[in-house]
Every structure is written in structure tokens, then in C-alpha cells.
Amino acid sequence: MTTVRENDESASTEQPAFVPPTAEDPVAAAGSELIGGPAGRRLALGRRGWWNPLRVIVLVAIGMFALGMVQKLPCYDTGWFYGANAQYVHACYSDIPHLFYARGFSTDLVPYFHRIPDAVSGGMSYLEYPVLTGLFMEVASWVTPHGSDLVHREQFYWLVNAGMLLACAAVTAVAVARTHRRRPWDALLVALAPAFALTATINWDLLAVALTALGMLMWARSRPVAAGVLVGLATAAKLYPVLLLGPLLLLCLRAGRMRPYWKALGAAAGAWLVVNVPVMAFAWNGWEKFYSYSQSRGIDFGSLWLMISQQTGNPMTSANAYAVALMLLLCAGIAALILYAPKRPRFAQVAFLVIAAFVLTNKVYSPQYVLWLIPLAALARPRWRDFLVWQACEVMYFLGIWEYLAYTTGGNNKGLPQGGYDFAIALHLLGTAFLCVMVVRDALFPEYDPVRWDGSDDPSGGLLDGAPDTFVLGRTARPARHAAPAGPRPRPS
Q1: CA 461 to CA 255: how far, in whole Å?
Q2: I want to staple 330 with a disulfide (CB 3.0 to 4.6 A). Which of 39, 61, 357, 401 is the partner?
Q3: Where do the domains of the chain lie?
Q4: Alpha-carbon gap, residue 411 to 237, rounded angstroms
């Protein structure tokens, strides 16, 4: 017969199903006091019935997305009328209603196949977005009713897109929550990110973000073909996801697991071709517009190069070459980290670093580009203090660019002058660089990595998780150590 004492001893050794952030993160623990205090043992064991982490995270993500829509209300009420300074003053600008007219969706032009009249587009002859994003925009236009009231149609088009982007936001939150099986609550970083809510409906980036998050989830589940298909589709929506294949190659090389990589690479190439080849074959001029425009585009808002140009007076005509050179240099550093680090870095860590390198060196930084980094940051460095420091910098940049545009377009010198805007760019650059430094520190000194505090190796690494090293530069490859048992360990900051 089992005694009560034996039951108590058995319960005391039961390992938690989830790692609640309030158990290891002092900022999360302090913030939880607003909703009743840190999570208890029952929640850590996953015994909360309907209110499981996934449902809570999705509801929070939907709530924050709705708040972001409310923030756009001043512009929605006025229909984002063209040339209006108010959309900058109220920081509620969105590309979506403007491009409904300026890219021919209001007149049923088919993107890539129909040339846009100069009188409408202002010189942009074809849609300057990748094919899958163009399809997303086109589908939303099918749902938008016809009529003579263009302002009303733009409002409706924005609402349709917002609904579709909300689905992408929910998918992103779910994918992040399920990537690390024992750490679903880390996805609250995504759901509660203020920059996520503020920028979600500026443009269509959330489509690529959701596909990328799903691709990383499939890789974590040891399904390289599915992961490759999703990364290929994400690259057909936005260019940045293809960069993930670079560090993944080196991780697989170090672990001696090249076969899954070639499967993922082949699937990614196949998925990208399936989406792009039909448009390439029948509408080449429209298809290549995105790539030619990206190449020829000069320095623009938010970039390091614009800040240097404005501070020095140098027009930075060679910024494209400088950006490529600096990006290659940073990628070489990431490659060295992967191949030289004493313990193989986690996939999420190097994924964040390579996209952050692209963001820091790019010729333009639109406010919504922060969406690319938020899910990766939640997986790479799930610490609330560092995440919120970075988010504060991004929110300041979000406000800075709109107030700078209000200053330059309003004609009344009200808003943020050039010096203030350069300071906002510097905050964005420093905040992102700070988070990169923390991720690099975690990779070099795994005892600082909160994901590895319970003895885990690489929960997002799929077939790489726990694999021994077979190719390491600078030292002899060593077999992987068995994971340490879960339990209390010292928590570095």
C-alpha cells in the first residue's frame, strides 16, 4: 500500500512539463505580480485545463494585435488621405491603403502582368514585391468591394489585410511556442512585444515571418523537407529567410548531419521555383522588378548609411558595396562562432545573428523589419530584461521616423529634426547590436544561455539536437555530452 509520504516524495521528484519564465527570470517574476504573482507548480506541470500556454499566448497575441489596430485609428478615420501630414504626426502610417491605389489593385490590374500607369504609380512600373507577397495583396483586393468611393475602399482593403495578417501573427506565436517543447511561455515575448503590435499592419512582412517561424518549427521537429518548403515559400514572400540556410549549413557540417541539410536546401529551392517560375516565364519584366529595385535603390530611412551621410554630408554613393562588404564580414564572424565555439551554438541563436546582421547593414530599415527579428529573438535569448531594452529602442525608432517625416513634410517645423532622427537611428542600431552581443555571449559561454540551464542542447535544432561534433576548427572534435538532468542550477544574468 502506498503511503501519503511516498506520494509526496514521488510528487517532489516530478519534473515540470514547462519552464515558466517566472521561475528563472526576475523581470518576468516581478511583472507577474500584476496578474497574481509567479506561476505555481501546477502551471509548470501543465495542469491548467483549458488555459494551457498555447491558448493564452494566442489570445494575448490577438489582443496586442487589436491594440495595434486601434493605434492606427486616427489614420483609418481619415482614410490615409494622400500627402497628409497627420498620418506621420499620429504615427499611424501604413503602406497598405496607399498601395491599393498606387499599384493598381483599385483598378483590377494584375500584379507583374500589367504595367502600372505612371500617373498612378509615380514611376514604379510594376509591383516591387516578391511573388508570394504580391499574391497576398491580390487576394485581399478580390475581397475588397468595387465602388466610386476610393477612401472607403482603401479602408476596407486595410481591414481585409489586417485580418489576414492577424492570422499570420497567430501562426507565428503558435510556431514559436511549439518550437521549444519545454519553453512555450517564451512565445509571450512575441505576443507582448510592443514593436510587434505597432508595426504589424504597416506592410505585409508578417506573411514571411509566419512562414519562417513554421519552417523553424518543422526543423525542430526533425522534418527537413517540410522545413525547406516553408523557408522556400517564405523567401518567395520576402528575401531575408534564405539567409537562414547559410548558418544552418555550417551547423550541419559541424554535426556531421549534411543529409538533412541537402533535403532542406532542395525542398527550399523547389518551393521557391514552383511559386516563381510561372511568373518568370510569362511576366519577366514584372517579376524582376523587386530584384532590380532592391539592387539600384539608394540609401534610405533607418539605415546606418543614411545616418553617416546626414552627419558627414557624404552622399554615400558606394553604400551598396559597403553594405555587402560589411554583411560578408559579419557573416564570416558568425561562421567563426559556429565552427570555433566550445559548444555548437543553437540554431535559433545563429539564425537571429544572421538576420540581425542583414538588418544592421542594409541600405534601408523600415519600421516593420523588426518583425523579422522578434520571433528569432524570443528563441535565441528568452530573457525579458534584454528583450525589453531592445524593444524600447525599436519603439523609439518607430516614433522617431514618423515624427521626422512630420517635420520634413509638414512645412511648419513641428516634429523631430534631422539630429533627433539620427539619434533614433542610433538607438535602433545600438539596441539590436546589444541583443546580438548577448546572444554571442550565450553561444560562447553556454552557462549564460537560459535555454540550456536544464541541460538541453538545441531544442530548435531537430536532428542536430544532441549530435556529436565531427568538424570543429581549432581543436579536436569531441562527442556530445549527455544532457544534465533538469533541476535547479545557478542562474547567471
Answers
A1: 11
A2: 357
A3: 15-48, 52-464
A4: 37
pLDDT computed for residue 42 by the predictor: 53
- Mean pLDDT for the chain overall: 89
pLDDT in tens, 273-327: 999 999 999 999 999 999 999 988 889 999 999 999 999 999 898 999 999 999 9
Q: pLDDT tens digits, residue range 247-263? A: 999 999 999 999 999 99
Convert the pLDDT of each residue in 115-161 to its tens digit: 999 888 778 999 999 999 999 999 999 999 998 899 999 999 999 99
Give residue for cell 528563472.
24
Contacts of 237 (CB under 8 A, 6+ apart): 130, 132, 133, 136, 204, 207, 208, 211
Rg, Å, the chain Cα set: 24
pTM: 0.91
Q: What is the mean pLDDT of residues 25-33?
A: 62
Nearest-angstrom CA–CA distance, 369 and 63: 21
The secondary structure of the chain, three-state, reads: CCCHHHHHHHHHCCCCCCCCHHHCCHHHHHHHHHHCCCCCHHHHCCCCCCCCHHHHHHHHHHHHHHHHHHHCHHHHHHCCCCCCCHHHHCCCCCHHHHHHHHCCHHHCCCCCCCCCCHHHHCCCCCCCCCHHHHHHHHHHHHHCCCCCCHHHHHHHHHHHHHHHHHHHHHHHHHHHHHHCCCCHHHHHHHHCCHHHHHHCCCCCHHHHHHHHHHHHHHHHCCCHHHHHHHHHHHHHHCCHHHHHHHHHHHHHHHHCCHHHHHHHHHHHHHHHHHHHHHHHHHCHHHHCHHHHHHHHCCCCCCCHHHHHHHHHCCCCCCHHHHHHHHHHHHHHHHHHHHHHCCCCCCHHHHHHHHHHHHHHHCCCCCHHHHHHHHHHHHHHCCCHHHHHHHHHHHHHHHHHHHHHHHHHHHCCCCCCCHHHHHHHHHHHHHHHHHHHHHHHHHHHCHHHCHHHCCCCCCCCCHHHCCCCCCCCCCCCCCCCCCCCCCCCCCCCC
Contact 485, 456 (CB under 8 A): no
Report residue 424 as a C-alpha cell.
533614433
Question: How high is the pLDDT of residue 11?
Answer: 39
User: Which tens digit of pLDDT belongs to each residue from 44-103?
Assistant: 555 556 678 899 999 999 999 999 999 999 999 888 876 578 899 999 999 999 999 999
